[in-house]
Amino acid sequence: MPHYDLVIVGTGSGNSILDPRFADWNTAIVEKGTFGGTCLNVGCIPTKMFVHAANVAATPATSSKFGVDEELTGVRWRDVRDRIFGRIDPIAAGGREYRVQHEDNQNVTVYEGEGRFTGHKELQVTYSDGRPPETITADKFVLAAGGRPVVPDIPGLAETGYHTSDTVMRLDELPSSIVILGGGYIAAEFAHVFASFGVNVTVVNRSGALLRSEDDDVSARFTELASQRFDVRLDRKTVRARKTASGVALDLEGPEGAETVEADVLLVATGRTPNSDLLDVAATGVTTGERGHVVVDEYQQTVVDGIYALGDISSVFELKHVANHEQRVVQHNLLHPDERIEADHRFVPHAVFTSPQVASVGLTEREARERGVSYVTSHQDYAGIAYGWAMEDTTGFAKLLADPATGQLLGAHIIGPQASSVIQPLIQAMSFGLDAKSMARGQYWIHPAMPELVENALLNLPLD
Length: 464
Fold this sequence. Notes:
InterPro entries: FAD/NAD-bd_sf (IPR036188), FAD/NAD-binding_dom (IPR023753), FAD/NAD-linked_Rdtase_dimer_sf (IPR016156), Mycothione_reductase (IPR017817), Pyr_nuc-diS_OxRdtase (IPR001100), Pyr_nucl-diS_OxRdtase_dimer (IPR004099), Pyr_OxRdtase_I_AS (IPR012999). The active site is at residue 447. The protein is an alpha/beta fold. The chain has 3 domains: 3-148 and 273-335, FAD/NAD(P)-binding domain; 152-269, FAD/NAD(P)-binding domain, CATH 3.50.50; 356-460, FAD/NAD-linked reductase, C-terminal dimerisation domain (Enolase-like, domain 1, 2-Layer Sandwich), CATH 3.30.390. The protein has helices at residues 37-41, 44-63, 77-101, 157-160, 185-196, 216-229, 276-279, 320-335, 365-370, 386-391, 419-422, 424-432, 436-441, 452-459, and strands at residues 3-9, 27-30, 108-111, 114-119, 122-126, 134-143, 147-149, 177-181, 200-204, 231-233, 237-243, 248-254, 257-263, 265-268, 272-274, 307-309, 350-352, 358-362, 376-381, 397-402, 409-415. The strands form 5 sheets. Strands 1, 2, 3, 4, 5, 6 and 16 form a 7-stranded mixed β-sheet that branches. The protein has a 5-stranded antiparallel β-sheet with strand order 17-18-21-20-19, with helices on both faces. The protein has a 4-stranded parallel β-sheet with strand order 10-9-8-14. Helix 5 (185-196) links the parallel strand 8 (177-181) and strand 9. The longest helix is centred in the first third of the chain and has 25 residues, at 77-101. It is globular. The protein starts with a strand and ends in a 5-residue tail after the last helix.
């Protein structure tokens, strides 16, 4: 039974832990799938590359209002797909090759199989090629095994056939129609991608709004705009899934009774779940929360001494930039056990790369009310700034929440062009304690650029 100083399970952000400072550690990496994790292979990077192509494809649909007549003559799906994965797949393969073959990793053993705890700090690795399982032990473990798509328990779904975000980007042909089950960020991004490529998109959601976890004003605006672009079915219960002669059908129950939607392809985008159950972390004494996330303290350590966790397996945020931050914390704490540092999750931003983009950091107004936090708000439309005029944007806006006593920002929410970039100064202000008045008046704002949206939203806050 091989014993190691450190075993890392997962090769997403966890793979970045090992650097030359670990050269004298006897280490092992366990990976059941493709090197690089969710973000590189099936998440952030390929989806955003598809989104950019979709943005290009969507341009002709709105160009005429600028006096420019354009026409989309076609989308070469396989060319789009192959450009993206032609870049990503070699990176994943290169990451594996580096760990397996490079002389820098002579102290690293790679186990390409599925790990599962069978006892205290005892991990069994099962191989898909028929080799007998191996059991390894270690003084320290890092659990960085990520998550996977949730597949709801719907009668007939397995027999009907479906895609998730893990598989839909590898389609051989662009369908003429698609049904997307779900109303969160994955559903919103893929609805934009496929609709921009000329696919008829139907979105089926069990709740009454899309992007429901966003601020209520942002969610309502996005739902309104999405309903103008896609066939959006809200407050629907999916009763069953069925195969049809041309594809799939979902039988639904909604406010007006029974109905059916049909399409060539079904995409299930109902969320993600951490892989803690696949690892059977309870067998080594590690605890999990209500949604299955591994419980960690401020140092990213579990309740078991020497077992750390990071990324989607332990983080409710399930964001790559959070996983990268936690990786650096875990790396430091492994190397400096007597001088450990804490993870900083105070102001974690996120963005939805749909159309229009959505970005957020801090409290929503709903959360502020629920927590009894005193706040004031402001609202600034893109239509009220000069660059908004240039873009003819009449739907986007920024919404801020601030402490009326101190002027400190409590939350920021933007829906509109380049929201993921426009929000960054607000993240910076919150992270470094810059109050709204000082931020608005203490610096120049380039005119007529999009950050004037932020400047005006700050000035609109009713602060003394």
